[in-house]
Design brief:
The complex is a heterodimer. By secondary structure, chain A is mainly beta. In chain A, 9% of the residues lie in helices and 38% in strands. In chain A, the strands form two sheets. In chain A, strands 3-4-5-6 form a four-stranded antiparallel sheet, with no helix packed on it. In chain A, strands 1-2 form a two-stranded antiparallel sheet. Chain A is globular and about 40 Å long. In chain A, 16% of the residues are buried. In chain B, 28% of the residues lie in helices and 26% in strands. In chain B, helix 3 packs across helix 10. The termini of chain B are far apart. The relative contact order of chain B is 0.18. The chains are: A mainly beta, B alpha/beta. Chains A and B meet through strand 3 and helix 1 of A and helix 8, strand 12 and strand 15 of B.
């Protein structure tokens, strides 16, 4: 069981959260020419590293806020959690 | 190579089983090969076997970081099926079914293929309609499919919950009678033994540290046992594909996730088939030892841990008990986890890459084991001929940018969502 420290609510169990994937992926900017490669990068391509991974979670059974979590994908150690609009 | 037969068994029994030949050697790597396969799992071993058998390419090495068969070919729930709707998946898997049927004879190794049939349960009228459509698509591709109503399902699996007041009543199911199970370790060992006998070097405990690429062409690999030159290199490392891709400066449409499975204590024979729950993700069969073999959802977040987390197991087994209430009385014997390549449309990739001489076999999601022979066969063809076979043309790497996705489950890019 992961224990995730929600920046809004404090330490809660994994059951309260829903996973949202890689948090480093950026949508191409609006109102600008977007190449196929840019769309590929955004929609399909993922680094999926072994080790530190910055990812999105939603505190779905709590405050319902999206948050960022930096977690080790091999050991599951959680290094830090941030509000969705905060940068690491 | 010594043939495995009942006569040889009796002959060796008289000598106290001391004279059996070793099944495969433990060679030191040569400095150069025609083809190097990275990954000594089912797919890698099968690829080497078909390279030698179908294409007469025997100057081949398999490089395995751990021991052969220690990854997902030793961690799956042994289910073999071809009950797919899309042509690419259906025709590829059905080709594999033919290889499965002849595998024990072909490899001279009993892989205990047991075509016991798989039943996908339906729990609503809409799901019956969807299964009817899938069954018809399968039959158009020459795959056997039978749509069962509630009473027909009850005759086959009377121990399932057929009471009236359940949350997900059984409306019927789609059955593929020719699907089944096999002895997973035997598949790895059978391919390894035959490949070795035809001259393939199986090199275990040898980690790939880096690649030697020059002018867009692969030249060789750097390993913990020294540098190895190779004209062609094939990657068969499901679960570690992203790690090797990073060494090649490639980013792939794959995320690495963890899938758990478990077995109960052994009980007397109760379940003849493979059965899947239709209102969630749970599948179950009974092993020859009597254990109930069960699996279901991914843990749900990127993981390389090769061990699972209990909330997912609890969730999966709750579904299992909803389907087969008797499971609640059983004790759990073992649980384990394996790491999966989750591709962005749920279908695999068997293709060339932008690097000349580098070939990719990855993205097997939940269905790697049953694909072992067809994957090895088509990957061997792709490497030997430097172009995909018709059967794996659809499994291209660039289908994501061209829009030719094979989204069997209709889940889009988040294949880890359950």
């Amino acid at each position: 069981m992961l224990h995730i420290k929600c920046p809004h609510c404090g330490l809660r169990s994994q059951n309260e959260f829903s996973y949202g994937g890689d948090a480093t992926v950026k949508r191409p900017e609006l109102n600008k020419e977007v190449s196929d490669q840019d769309w590929d990068n955004f929609v399909y391509l993922r680094k999926s590293p072994r080790g530190k991974h910055l990812e999105l979670w939603q505190h779905i059974s709590g405050c319902r806020q999206w948050i960022k979590v930096e977690r080790d994908t091999l050991t599951h150690e959680i290094f830090t959690t941030l509000k969705a609009n905060e940068e690491i | 190579m010594q043939k495995y037969s009942v006569f040889n068994l009796i002959k060796n029994a008289f000598k106290g089983h001391k004279d059996w030949e070793i099944a495969w050697k433990d060679p030191t790597p040569k400095s150069e090969y025609d083809v190097v396969i990275i990954g000594g799992g089912g797919h890698g071993l099968a690829t080497a076997y078909y390279l030698a058998k179908e294409h007469n390419i025997t100057k081949v090495a398999i490089i395995e970081k751990g021991w052969i068969g220690g990854g997902n070919v030793g961690r799956n729930t042994t289910i073999i099926r071809s009950n797919y709707m899309h042509d690419e998946n259906g025709l590829f898997s059905e080709f594999g079914m033919d290889l499965w049927r002849n595998m024990s004879q072909d490899l001279n190794f009993n892989v205990m293929f047991s075509p016991r049939g798989i039943i996908n349960l339906a729990h609503s009228d809409a799901q019956m309609n969807a299964y009817s459509r899938r069954g018809n698509s399968m039959r158009l591709n020459g795959i056997d499919a039978v749509l069962l109503n509630r009473e027909e399902v009850r005759k086959i699996i009377p121990m399932a919950d057929f009471s009236e007041n359940v949350r997900f009543p059984i409306f019927g199911g789609l059955m593929q009678p020719s699907a089944g199970t096999a002895r997973h370790d035997a598949v790895a060992w059978g391919y390894a033994r035959q490949a070795d006998s035809m001259g393939v070097d199986i090199i275990q405990n040898c980690e790939v540290i880096g690649f030697d690429v020059s002018n867009g062409k692969i030249l060789g690999i750097r390993t913990s046992k020294g540098d190895i030159k190779a004209k062609k290199i094939g990657l068969c490392v499901a679960g570690s594909t992203n790690i090797l891709a990073e060494k090649l400066n490639m980013t792939l449409p794959i995320e690495t996730h963890l899938l758990q499975a478990c077995v109960s204590e052994p009980i007397k024979p109760i379940l003849d088939n493979v059965v899947t729950f239709g209102a969630g993700h749970f599948y179950c069969s009974q092993s020859d030892k009597g254990e109930m073999v069960m699996g279901g959802d991914l843990d749900g977040y990127n993981s390389y841990a090769q061990r699972g987390n209990l909330p997912t197991l609890q969730h999966v087994l709750t579904e299992g008990i909803a389907m087969f209430p008797f499971l609640s009385k059983l004790k759990m014997l073992r649980t384990w986890g394996g790491i999966m390549d989750m591709s962005m449309d749920g279908s695999p990739i068997i293709d060339k890459t932008h690097i000349e001489g580098l070939y990719l076999n990855c993205g097997w999601c939940y269905g790697g084991f049953k694909a072992t022979p067809a994957s090895g066969w088509t990957f061997a063809h792709t490497i030997a001929q430097d172009r995909p076979h018709k059967l794996n043309e659809g499994y291209s790497l660039n289908r994501f940018s061209t829009g030719h996705l094979i989204d069997e489950k209709g889940l889009g890019t988040k294949t880890w969502i359950s």
